Please model this.
Amino acid sequence: MGSLCTGGDNFQKAGVMLAEIMPASCRQRSLFDPIRSDKDLMNALDRINRKWGANTVRYAVSGFKKSWTFRRDHLSRAYTTRWDQLPVVKASLPGI
Model:
């Protein structure tokens, strides 16, 4: 990033999701599918990874290392979906 940013520049990390990327040989074609080439997209991804380093752009299914985790400290109770979280009421009637 050093060569991209000069003093005082701000940048924000971002992600882009691409769906249904697969080898051309694995795609089942429909009779009515328009014929189009995804080779340009794959070539663009390869060029980005060669220029900026391996895994700059990668498949989401390959996962990534999380630098943070979701904290579950202050979750609302799930009365409607968890039996163990139902409130317990104990009442006594006079004379019974």
In short: The mean pLDDT is 77. The two ends are 76 Å apart (CA to CA). Residues 39-52 form the longest helix (14 residues).
